[in-house]
């Protein structure tokens, strides 16, 4: 670029800044929460809940209360800072209200941790029962991406139900980026939940899932498409999955009024947009099988 | 390993080196472009386009031209170095031609940035209209992986159309690795494009997509399989998607002559290898639903 | 949190520790292998096999044996340490047995490297023949996630067949996290294997795959669901894919007795749970196509 | 440690916390400025002043104003944050006063930069004239620790004269740690100043130095010892060095009333605690030289 | 280098390896302690002793016992590992003895921490009384290199007195590298010790220092030179400094029988190799001052 | 800053750029060698020479030639790049000359390594004989800063004698920054050289030092001051120290014609600017000792 061309491009981009508030929001008090800080909160919570699995400094048995207490104090310190940024970003709170909200969110959030830890152990049990390839429960906690995604969901959900903006989204997208599993923090998910192989699973904001449900990779529990945008915000748009349902790989179950009855099995690639009763087996119709002589000439074009 | 065994293995690998040019190309002037440098170019372009979203040092409003100009100069400096490596890797250019090509690529590329920035705002709008769970446009820019994949595609595409080797691929695979979305930089994609949930989407090199198209996770816009390899290079092998089409999760649309007519809707898991007219709804045939008593004994083997 | 509330939460978590061995295993001699060390072993093996592709310090042609030998010595040093941790974690070996096992695993593992390198070149060839968008074989080695996943599988498999615990899993999940491809290290996979676009592919532990097989993104070669857990450990639960088969995007082939005969083609989204003979084309039945007037009013709700 | 012993030690340290405010100051609004941020301010200022010497992204000649402007905006953003912390740490300012103080400090500080840059070039010239081993002026800017220490002093001094707490100290100690040169930011130092070899030089808070002064390693311009502490705060306790003085290695010049007259030369190891007139040569008295037979038996004890 | 030359050099170096045990000690069970781990132990101890000064995560006042306890557990875990390496490196201990020694060292070391913390506060007080430039005690703790060197000495000394090999040396050299102060961990130093400006101070292994002593930069408390090497190991070779002594910059006090009597003052650059009684002022003899006309022609050669 | 003020400051600095070539040298082909790369060359050479001391991956005894060879190839690769930059920075070489010079420098430099390694072992021996506090030769290699400074000097000197610009300086300043020892790479230093405690030692460019010389911290072997600058470049300006000399702390020996005869001993703080014969003991004259009553009131001002 020569100097004139550079200046033209700069002017073009600066013009976009000045015309579009989305690009360059000018309120100096709005900042996004810090993604790295939130990721570290997630990691520290994981170390508190499964203390000898992650991180170099594994606590010994001398006095684990020191470890738990010190880590929670540090997490709270960091979480408070990010909560404040997130609430300021959305706006509409006076300073005193802000502090009170942060206090209340933290108190409720941290008091839930022992119970979340208990529920996560039911998820470990479900994975151990559901996957013969797992050699131990420790292996599941240590390395299963589906379990990691559920862990992050269960944390993020506790903030979602307290109407915290942005932070649950950042947590979900962190898990999404690492595992390919996109569970909206608004979903309601029961105990003994198992996601096998993980990649490509999508679970929408208003989904309800019972106990002992198992889904495979690529499963979508989603909404019917809309371009009405925000008009549907808050409406139940995603399905209800009752207890003991199994959904195979790449199946899609869509719609807020769709209920998959207790104990049903949904075949892979199924596309379900209406309810089915308890005990259903949903499968695709008659696949055709045509036999012809196998083509072994690899240099030729293969078509279906 | 003892010393003899080690020496044998070393000899075996060294033999492979000497016999196979793919493993150990001996031309000392061939180097791959630097992946990290290219990733940083992508990140810096993102900061120029959405300046208060990413990175610690957010520009104030004092004089944003300084920020834009300085960042572009730095990007150009880095891009020039990588362009040179990429063109040298492919070979076939005299030194003076090389410099002229780099000049021309940069001049064209940077002059497109304000327009790309404008188009990206249409993509933000499409996501905002299409996802009731989005609380603001800012949240989309800040955290939606589908939007990130489109952003990287729009950048990489500008280099692809100028016949730059390797760098568009590195950019695409960077986005692919982070989001699970594999958009070949050769695809042609209109405005107001929205990829919801993102993971598993594949869009092939010769795909053409109109305006206001929406695709869900797991959608493939691909080619029919070939083992003819390079003979098909440059031929249109991927489909054409007209305006206002919606494609649900895990559907596949394949083939260079396949056209999905304007306003069509493709159901999840559909496998489409021939054209459909405007206004089509393509769905899977009659799924079977068999009801039986739900099996609540979790210790038993469940079969479909 | 005030001091009382904090102490209550700490006590609750500490109680979970003391009651559940999965959370806080108290055997001081059990440690997980180090994930980062194992990732570095994978990266170093990649540098030995494809020496001018990855890492700053590319060997010159002066004396590549030094490079190979030194890198292998370093890898062995690191691998031995992790093998020891992994075997100790599972337990049941006396100290002398442990050393002998580590010696034997290393000797066998390293002696396989030249052959693995040779097979990987057949995979590169398959990708080059199968993807017209690939501009060179170098581009495949350098940037194709499917090839990376196969590379990691072929390494991890050599440890799996020697009954090494945990480390093959860590390797597989590393590749899984980066590429969205989950190949269990227990699978048996022939030469000239190509995974196109990669994201969402799952290949189970007891899968057998022949030569010249090609699978697309989202393909599952899996098991039928079970909740019987460890009772099925070691049983063949995943399908057999014979030579020259092509499987399109998002198809699922499940079950230990399912055999896809030589030269077959499986359409996208197919859900196959029983065997098909050689030369089969498996596709979904009659998709319905209903045409209606395209709805161009983007503000309205679109339904399928 | 067993649990009892640990708890005793913890209690002992906690008791120290509660009794000594220096250890654990309880005011939650007091934080130290961030050392790393301040080090980065120093580095960024160095890049603005000597733009092609430090850092990867060297500006090209296209439009250096963009580089300067953008870097200064970023520095100001960071400096404001640290100034606020430093002023809050000292306390005593109302919120509005705080903002006004920060505004004023920044306005004055940044307006001084072009002049500081000019003076630093006189220091480069002095080093070039004074050191035959310097191959170029660029080598001095790029690698001389004495020049680096002077650079940091000249920056820190501008904050000291505006009564900024803590930050000038952090800057000085950063230079001290890297070069072994401890120049208190309160000192007043003229143009064409050269510190050769650098290590061990100490220049106290109330020192005054003229133009064209040269000091060698180990030189102290200090105070006479006191244990009266803060009673002497603000009093001139360090010497005055007039123009054109040279001070050799390890000499000490002490005391607030000590003046080294113009053009004087102080010998190495001299210990000067009273004034000397212009043109003095200060040296140590008659060193004794006793000759004896050299002892070549290295195994024996050597004494002086 | 061509291949022959390379191979010759390699052979030359390998020959040195095989001939000189210092270069390449072949005992596979000897490893040096890890320098980084030891540096982190020092840093963590500093955070325990001065908890709101260093590190991002400053404990709040809720329950500092959690912070202290958890940090000490982590430090002990790390210190045990390094103690084991250091003792193995020296050799001569059976395995059970090793464990018992490590237990004992840790128990004694940690029980000393509250007392060390108390003594360090006397050093802070001495610095505050002795340096009018210090604006607060906090500034001394936060940023004075002399205080940092004393802190590290007081920690390392506790390990020295328990005959721990290598680790005290690594700690001392860490402080030496950062501050230019080389205090051998074997020295015995009383309370209220102040090192002003720090750089260049050397305090030898068998030095004894009383209370309320103040030394300036460049002061050596050393030994007379020997080439008798290890024959003098353990003999008192360094001086004794009684209470209330002040030693000015660059003075050297040498010899194991040299005693500086209570309340003495040693002038800068003094070289003292025999004892002086209490209340002495030791200074250099009559410095000559010769006056001549100052030479203002900077282009001329200046001589002393 | 407001916009106007910012623009003024930017203009002021830009004006300095345009007027002073030192600040902003405009030749686009001049770049400084990369400091980090050069530091890594030093570290890698240290690992080759003392292979089990530094770095995680210590070679086993299987085949150390692989380790040596591979490390040397990598060092040469990196050194060649930096040599090229350094020679281009000075300018005056045609491209072919440049390559020939780099070849020749490398060939000579690497062939010297086995001999340098041998000489370094004499330095280790001298330290072991000279310091009763050293517990082993390994401890000296592993942790003595004086030995590190000599190591770097011996490397840098080999480049200096081949007239390599800038790189020897960068090496020296790296050692200087870490140890406080500034040995100009041009100095000529014999075998069995020992620098005890290290901080503050300066050894000038044209110094000549014999065998078995020992210097203490703070010793200067320097030049008489000049402001004639480059006119003296290349002239011998620093002293000659013959065999078996010992120089105590903070002594200065200056001048190109000054010769310290064999076996001499120079007392601490001595300032020597003329030659002394073999066997001299140089000491300071009659120090005065005045005794008075020690002042124990620490609150009073103490004066010398």
TrEMBL record, chains A, B, C, D, E, F:
<keyword id="KW-0012">Acyltransferase</keyword>
<dbReference type="InterPro" id="IPR045304">
    <property type="entry name" value="LbH_SAT"/>
</dbReference>
<dbReference type="GO" id="GO:0006535">
    <property type="term" value="P:cysteine biosynthetic process from serine"/>
</dbReference>
<dbReference type="Pfam" id="PF06426">
    <property type="entry name" value="SATase_N"/>
</dbReference>
<protein>
    <recommendedName>
        <fullName>Serine acetyltransferase</fullName>
    </recommendedName>
</protein>
<keyword id="KW-0028">Amino-acid biosynthesis</keyword>
<dbReference type="InterPro" id="IPR011004">
    <property type="entry name" value="Trimer_LpxA-like_sf"/>
</dbReference>
<feature type="domain" description="Serine acetyltransferase N-terminal">
    <location>
        <begin position="99"/>
        <end position="150"/>
    </location>
</feature>
<keyword id="KW-0808">Transferase</keyword>
<dbReference type="InterPro" id="IPR042122">
    <property type="entry name" value="Ser_AcTrfase_N_sf"/>
</dbReference>
<dbReference type="GO" id="GO:0009001">
    <property type="term" value="F:serine O-acetyltransferase activity"/>
</dbReference>
<dbReference type="GO" id="GO:0005737">
    <property type="term" value="C:cytoplasm"/>
</dbReference>
<comment type="pathway">
    <text>Amino-acid biosynthesis; L-cysteine biosynthesis; L-cysteine from L-serine: step 1/2.</text>
</comment>
<dbReference type="InterPro" id="IPR010493">
    <property type="entry name" value="Ser_AcTrfase_N"/>
</dbReference>
């Amino acid at each position: 670029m020569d100097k004139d061309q550079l200046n033209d491009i700069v002017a073009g981009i600066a013009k976009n800044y000045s015309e579009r508030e989305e690009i360059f929001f000018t309120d100096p008090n709005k900042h996004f929460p810090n993604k790295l800080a939130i990721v570290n909160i997630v990691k520290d919570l994981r170390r508190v809940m499964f203390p000898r699995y992650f991180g170099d400094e594994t606590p010994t048995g001398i006095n684990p209360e020191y470890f738990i207490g010190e880590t929670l104090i540090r997490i709270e310190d960091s979480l408070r800072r990010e909560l404040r940024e997130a609430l300021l970003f959305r706006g509409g709170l006076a300073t005193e209200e802000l502090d009170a909200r942060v206090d209340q969110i933290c108190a409720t959030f941290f008091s839930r941790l022992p119970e979340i830890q208990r529920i996560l152990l039911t998820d470990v049990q479900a994975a151990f029962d559901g996957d013969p390839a797992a050699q131990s429960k420790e292996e599941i906690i240590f390395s299963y991406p589906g379990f990691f995604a559920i862990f992050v969901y269960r944390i993020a959900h506790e903030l979602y139900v307290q109407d915290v903006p942005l932070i649950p989204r950042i947590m979900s997208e962190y898990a999404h980026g690492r595992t390919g599993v996109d569970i909206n923090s608004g979903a309601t998910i029961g105990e003994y939940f198992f996601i096998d192989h993980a990649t490509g699973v999508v679970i929408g904001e208003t989904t309800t899932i019972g106990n002992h449900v198992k889904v495979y990779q690529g499963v979508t529990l989603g909404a019917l498409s809309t371009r009405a945008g925000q008009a549907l915000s808050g409406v139940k748009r995603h399905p209800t999955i009752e207890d003991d349902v199994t959904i195979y790989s790449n199946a899609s179950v869509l719609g807020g009024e769709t209920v998959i009855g207790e104990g049903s099995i949904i075949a892979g690639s199924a596309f379900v947009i209406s309810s089915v009763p308890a005990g259903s087996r949903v499968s695709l119709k008659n696949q055709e099988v045509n036999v012809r002589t196998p083509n072994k000439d690899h240099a030729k074009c293969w078509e279906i």
